[in-house]
Amino acid sequence: MDWPSPPPTSPSLVVRSPRQTVGLLRNRPAGDHGPKPSEVYGFVGSITTVIAIAVYLAWAYTPEPWLHSLGITYYPSKYWALAVPSFVIVAVALSMAIYMGFNFLATPPPTSFNTIFGETEVSTVFFSIQFTVTSFWSLHFHLFFCILYTSASQCL
């Protein structure tokens, strides 16, 4: 069994920046193995998130005299350890409430004439987008069940 030869070491394969690394990873040959850029970004992102949470918890729960004994004297007030998560939770809750409110505003009430079907179709306008829906309610129920359960040639 012949092993593949290593790639040539040409000056074009020398990487001088992260952008060149990403460019080489995206344009690699089909038989090339190794991690994809999305996998690398996901791994780096997850490790960064774990480190950020560890630093946040250490800052939030470590007493100030311990931080001073470690030589850490420049850090935000402990007030922000509770304020920022509270602001984020309130912002998420308000955005969900606003989203539901927009949905209620976009939906016509049940008594609106926009929800009543015509003889063959209904044309409705929401947010300046017009669409047409063909109504099955305009079919007689005998014809509807005949088309549904038998061949169409017997119904005509």
From TrEMBL:
It comes from the Eukaryota. The chain crosses the membrane at residues 40-59, 79-105, 125-150. InterPro entries: PIG-P (IPR013717). Keywords: Membrane, Transmembrane, Transmembrane helix. It is a multi-pass membrane protein. Pfam families: PIG-P. Residues 38-121 form the PIG-P domain. It is found in: Membrane. This is PIG-P domain-containing protein. It comes from Eleusine coracana subsp. coracana. The lineage of its organism: Eukaryota, Viridiplantae, Streptophyta, Embryophyta, Tracheophyta. The gene is ga18569.
